[in-house]
């Protein structure tokens, strides 16, 4: 059976007192035998659930005509028993039950609805008869099943005169004399929390019920329910749905995206109930998963406030039991030992406070929070900086509707006034969501820095060390909660939610590194930065490619996590966080409801809706792709429930080209499965006329096969581990994993060398005690370095981006007494006494580094001697026992600096710094005579300097300007598959399995990372100012929006991997060309994303071709393609992988024959001669692109994985 899309209505349940019992009570009252009106037990009287109509002659159809998944039903047996002949009434008399109608005994209800507790929840104070008419009363319910899935209910209590219009023993009762009123509760149940909309619906129902006769009561409610079952839910995004229920127009607001909740309540209510301080206390208790009980005299207020508070925490999701309304008979639930959030009537406050312990009691009416033991709460507060930012922004909220709109005149149209209020509320809700989201981001900012995605590990201890001391207790509690565990799981799964989008905006708009002046004034321990990343995107920035190499300032750091950087949010209105703007929404109005209980009328209604949606699609401009997607989605829903399955699939297929983010995968799979059960002879002819449907069906089946193959690893997406020190000896593989999980370093080559260093002189395994000592020393050294506070007189001599990573003890030197400081650029002496600065050397100026000895009395003390270019005197420092270590570290930094300068690759400097710091930790942890020898295993660049000549060919050195390492955060280099430069904005780099990294072209720093499919990308093309097309091995062309930086459109017409893309203006129309491996070429209208069957090729005189298994360039005449008219042999080349024309040159990327290193050949297009041969990569050159004909960028295979930037002459 196909899965039906969820509609507005799951069920409508009527709860009250059975008519026979009311009749008995009424007789007793007329006979004055009732001293007081009794409190009665409510029962389920009616249940109305879809489907309400079906085609009798086609009962085998697997999809019914109603927007609901509820198909299977069961029997609900009332509590009264048929064989119970008598029942005791409140006054002690008995009454006969034998005449009770058997027709009311069994009530058919949806299988997944549990109605046992519903009567109590509909009348949480009990069902009380009245002698006079009372006002209607609304409240809201939340039901949670065993799997945590929530269903929502809106209840109205409506008083009606007993036995109104009823006939008994041949006499009609006179209702005017009865003066006995009984409440009925109508509960509308929905899968989604449309509280305001369903409240409006019930208000319209009461308008119909009041004049209705008792005989029409049930039929009126059934017809009302059937109408609601015809209402489709709006798709995520900018399209709402409205319908007329008379006398009101009801609007269903859409979700922001697939993962966002429906918001159909007034989010400002908690701000009216609590002060900002109290509100933060309540949110703190929720984040710490306390046992919370809300109290109010208004049942509706309990749910609305609780729902609002949980929405404030989005995207964190409350995982514990949640019952916002507890009936008087359910107070035992408060004895549960686990965390929970529940709500009670204020009359139970004293009882609950006295009989239960360790509860947090929240009086919503008075805005007070306290514990059950005292009038205060003894729990850690939300971090101060985040709280101050929240309160400063909350002060600016305008929460009073009448105050803001008092300049307007009185409205005469009720629906217009409701629309005006709804717009005001939507703006308030957006503002409050922004403020709440910023609070969450400020609390949990930087969590991403302590995650290891490969091993799914969170380093909680290091994360805690970055928090302010006063906030430690708060984070210790929060980190142990289910709500935070779920949040971590989403981060590890790289979920793109509101948190990640806001944090990324803050990250990309913030300085990449702290200024040294800021660090020195406050110390590392209190420095705050909006992105707070010490090791991210290191060495990836060189803003000015034209400056001389000697003047290059490289921003780098050790390859450590930001473990000791104190992270605090930006406070006040100067925050770097950018909130989402108020969006413009469209409203689709449903046709007028038909008689909802007649099949052919319902089918005509669906046809009218499809027709209206078709008109809306035709009237929407093609550039409004997001709105078009919502119309197609909605029409797909309607076609699904009206059994037009192929039409539904065609609508869902259109989402690939408009917005694939809302593609309903499960629904489409269900549709495809349902088609498999129908005779294919009936389906195939229709599908043949729609080839895109055949492709969609084939793709769904392939996806199902892949999903079944992945089912064995489903648990990996849920796993979240905390980093723990090892408890057993580790071989190399275990050691690599442990080091990567710890966040010390990710590069496998470096970890292998570290393993060799720690296992010198004994068996090749690292014990838990040795690792603990090494890890502790690494962290302590890191902390000591970050405590360094430099005076202003020192800061003026060093670059703003420099940080001190190692500081010696106080020693005697040839330039005075003090401590030697090591930064990423230089060594300097921090003199004792009044701190002063004495330049020792920049690494690139060193000429010799050696260990010597200085005489002291009858002893000779080891010393370090440095000879610096341009200075006659030698710098000597009596470092004593530290001499050998400093000798190793300085040599490694010197070698790294030379390699970075020669290869224009700042990554070498970062790696050298990491090696030097690891040497320091190894020597400190081994404490033996072999410690220096062990540390020398990490002298990687110094060894390369001694063993292999580092000279770069002159031509290469003159042309090469800079290098970028896209694999800097990865355990091993990844091959660069495709490169694309978009003028004046970004460099797009594709690496393995669809990962795309975006670098800012002004600084070459990483700004965004996204995943496009799960296969290798073959080509990229900038089609216009907002579209990047990417051709993949999985035969799909993915389209990324450069503005929103999301991939939500796809072209799926190719049947094999897409191998090439091009774009051309054809008259006033822009067209794009794509080709695939099986030889097909498609021409696309860029505006409509439709295939055009009028290929127009731009002919040139020559065609240049290269081959992956040949070092020869073939040049063809376009008019004669029988054979190339000229060939150019590339010297020492075994194959070519990419080619591009820049000005009057052709650049060809390949691989050498005598070695596996990459080469770039530059040829003259007119003379067909080789102009230059460049050597800049350690693996084959796999991708190449041009940056405005000023630079050429090349990317290499996985043994190199870097991007080189070359100057074009």
UniProtKB/TrEMBL annotation:
Pfam families: DENN (PF02141), TPR_DENND3 (PF25570), uDENN (PF03456), WD40 (PF00400). PROSITE patterns: DENN, WD_REPEATS_2, WD_REPEATS_REGION. SUPFAM superfamilies: WD40 repeat-like. Residues 81-104, 503-556 are annotated as: Disordered. Residues 75-498 form the UDENN domain. GO terms for molecular function: guanyl-nucleotide exchange factor activity. The keyword Disulfide bond does not apply. It comes from the Eukaryota. Keywords: Guanine-nucleotide releasing factor, WD repeat. WD repeats lie at residues 1174-1209. Residues 92-104, 519-532, 547-556 have a biased composition (Polar residues). Residues 503-512 have a biased composition (Basic and acidic residues). GO terms for biological process: enteric nervous system development; regulation of Rab protein signal transduction. This is DENN domain containing 3. The lineage of its organism: Eukaryota, Metazoa, Chordata, Craniata, Vertebrata. The gene is dennd3a.
């Amino acid at each position: 059976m196909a899965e039906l899309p969820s509609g507005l209505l799951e069920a409508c349940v009527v709860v009250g007192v059975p008519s026979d019992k009311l009749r008995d009570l009424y007789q007793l009252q007329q006979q004055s035998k009732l001293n007081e009106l009794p409190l009665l037990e409510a029962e389920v009287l009616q249940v109305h659930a879809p489907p309400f109509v079906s085609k009798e002659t086609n009962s085998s159809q697997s999809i019914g005509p109603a927007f609901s998944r509820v198909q299977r039903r069961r029997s609900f047996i009332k509590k009264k028993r048929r064989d119970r002949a008598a029942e005791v009434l409140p006054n002690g008399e008995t009454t006969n039950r034998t005449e009770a109608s058997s027709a009311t005994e069994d009530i058919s209800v949806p299988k997944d609805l549990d109605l046992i507790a519903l009567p109590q929840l509909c009348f949480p104070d009990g069902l009380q008869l009245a002698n006079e008419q009372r006002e209607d009363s609304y409240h809201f319910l939340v039901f949670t099943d065993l799997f945590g899935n929530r269903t929502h209910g809106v209840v109205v209590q409506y008083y009606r005169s007993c036995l109104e219009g009823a006939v008994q023993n041949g006499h009609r009762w006179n209702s005017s004399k009865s003066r006995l009123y009984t409440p009925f509760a109508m509960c509308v149940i929905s899968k989604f929390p449309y509280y305001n909309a369903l409240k409006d619906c019930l208000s319209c129902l009461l308008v119909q019920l009041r004049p209705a006769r008792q005989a029409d009561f049930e039929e009126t409610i059934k017809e009302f329910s059937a109408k609601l079952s015809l209402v489709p839910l709006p798709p995520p995004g900018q399209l709402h749905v409205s319908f007329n229920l008379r006398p009101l127009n009801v609007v269903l607001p859409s979700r922001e995206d697939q993962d966002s909740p429906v918001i159909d309540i007034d989010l400002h209510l908690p701000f009216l109930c609590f002060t900002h301080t109290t509100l933060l206390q309540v949110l703190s208790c929720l984040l710490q998963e306390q046992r919370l009980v809300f109290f109010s005299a208004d049942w509706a207020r309990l749910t609305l406030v609780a729902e609002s508070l949980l929405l404030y925490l989005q995207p964190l999701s409350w995982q514990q039991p949640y019952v916002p309304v507890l009936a008087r008979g359910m107070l035992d639930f408060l004895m549960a030992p686990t965390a929970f959030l529940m709500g009670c009537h204020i009359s139970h406050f004293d009882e609950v406070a006295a009989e239960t312990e360790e509860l947090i009691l929240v009086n919503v009416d008075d805005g007070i929070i306290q514990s059950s033991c005292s009038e205060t709460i003894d729990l850690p507060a939300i971090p101060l900086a985040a709280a101050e930012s929240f309160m400063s922004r909350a002060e600016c909220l305008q929460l009073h509707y009448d105050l803001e709109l008092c300049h307007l005149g009185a409205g005469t149209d009720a629906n217009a006034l409701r629309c005006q209020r709804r717009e005001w509320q939507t703006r308030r809700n957006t503002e409050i969501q922004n403020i709440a989201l910023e609070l969450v981001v400020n609390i949990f900012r930087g969590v991403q820095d302590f995650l290891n995605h490969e091993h799914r590990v969170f380093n909680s201890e290091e994360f805690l060390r970055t928090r302010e001391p006063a906030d430690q207790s708060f984070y210790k509690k929060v980190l142990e909660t289910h709500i935070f565990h779920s949040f971590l799981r989403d981060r590890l799964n790289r979920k793109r939610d509101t948190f990640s989008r806001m944090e990324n905006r803050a990250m990309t708009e913030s300085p990449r590194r702290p200024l040294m002046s800021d660090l020195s004034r406050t110390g590392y321990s209190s420095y705050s930065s909006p992105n707070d990343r010490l090791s991210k995107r290191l060495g990836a920035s060189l803003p000015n490619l034209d400056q001389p190499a000697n003047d290059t300032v490289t921003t780098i750091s050790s390859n450590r996590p930001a473990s000791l950087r104190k992270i605090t949010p930006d406070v006040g209105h100067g925050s770097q966080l950018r909130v989402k703007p108020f969006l413009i929404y469209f409203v689709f109005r449903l046709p007028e409801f038909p008689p909802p209980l007649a099949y052919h009328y319902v089918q005509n209604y669906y046809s009218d809706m499809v027709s209206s949606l078709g008109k809306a699609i035709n009237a929407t401009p093609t550039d409004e792709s997001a709105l078009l997607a919502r119309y197609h989605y909605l029409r797909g829903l309607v076609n699904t429930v009206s059994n037009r399955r192929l039409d539904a699939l065609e609508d869902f297929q259109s989402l690939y080209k408009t917005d694939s983010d809302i593609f309903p995968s499960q629904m489409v799979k269900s549709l495809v499965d349902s088609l498999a059960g129908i005779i294919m002879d009936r389906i195939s002819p229709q599908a043949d006329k729609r080839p895109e449907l055949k492709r969609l069906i084939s793709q769904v089946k392939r996806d199902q096969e892949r999903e079944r193959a992945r089912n064995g690893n489903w648990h990996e997406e849920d796993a979240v581990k905390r980093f723990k020190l090892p408890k057993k000896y580790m071989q190399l593989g275990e050691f690599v994993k442990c080091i990567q999980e710890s966040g010390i370093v990710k590069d496998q080559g470096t970890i292998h060398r570290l393993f060799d260093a720690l296992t010198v002189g004994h068996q090749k395994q690292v014990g838990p005690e040795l690792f603990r000592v090494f890890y502790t020393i690494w962290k302590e050294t890191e902390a000591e370095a970050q405590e360094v506070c430099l005076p202003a007189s020192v800061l003026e001599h060093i670059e703003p981006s420099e940080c001190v990573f190692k500081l010696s003890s106080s020693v005697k030197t040839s330039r005075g007494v003090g401590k030697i400081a090591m930064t990423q650029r230089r060594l300097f002496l921090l003199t004792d006494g009044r701190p002063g600065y004495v330049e020792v050397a920049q690494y690139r100026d060193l000429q010799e580094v050696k260990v010597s000895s200085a005489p002291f009395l009858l002893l000779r003390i080891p010393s370090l001697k440095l000879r610096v270019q341009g200075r006659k005197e030698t710098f000597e420092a009596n470092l004593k026992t530290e001499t050998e270590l400093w000798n190793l570290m300085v040599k490694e930094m010197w070698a790294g600096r030379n390699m970075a300068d020669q290869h224009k690759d700042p990554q070498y400097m970062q790696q050298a710094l990491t090696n030097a710091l690891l040497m320091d930790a190894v020597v400190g942890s081994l404490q033996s005579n072999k410690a220096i020898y062990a540390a020398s295993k990490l002298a990687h660049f110094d060894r390369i300097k001694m063993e292999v000549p580092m000279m770069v060919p002159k031509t290469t050195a003159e042309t090469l300007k800079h290098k970028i390492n896209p694999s800097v955060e990865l355990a091993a280099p990844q091959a660069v598959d495709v490169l694309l430069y978009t003028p004046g904005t970004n460099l797009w780099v594709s690496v393995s399995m669809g990962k795309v990294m975006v670098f800012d072209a002004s600084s070459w720093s990483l700004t965004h990372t996204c995943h496009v499919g799960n296969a290798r990308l073959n080509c990229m093309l900038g089609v216009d100012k907002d579209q990047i097309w990417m051709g993949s091995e999985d035969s799909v062309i993915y389209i990324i929006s450069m503005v929103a930086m999301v991939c939500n459109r796809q072209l799926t017409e190719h049947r094999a991997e897409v191998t090439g893309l091009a774009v051309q203006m054809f008259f006033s129309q822009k067209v794009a060309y794509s080709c695939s491996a099986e030889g097909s070429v498609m021409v696309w209208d860029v505006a409509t994303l439709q295939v055009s069957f009028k290929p127009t090729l731009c002919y040139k005189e020559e065609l240049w071709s290269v081959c992956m298994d040949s070092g020869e360039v073939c040049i063809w005449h376009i008019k004669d393609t029988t054979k190339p008219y000229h060939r150019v042999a590339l010297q020492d080349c075994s194959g070519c992988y990419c080619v591009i024309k820049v000005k009057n040159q052709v650049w060809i990327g390949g691989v050498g024959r005598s070695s596996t290193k990459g080469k770039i050949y530059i040829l003259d297009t007119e003379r067909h001669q080789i102009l230059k041969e460049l050597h800049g990569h350690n693996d084959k050159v796999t991708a190449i692109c041009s940056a405005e004909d000023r630079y050429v960028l090349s990317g290499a295979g996985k043994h190199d994985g870097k991007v080189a930037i070359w100057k074009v002459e």
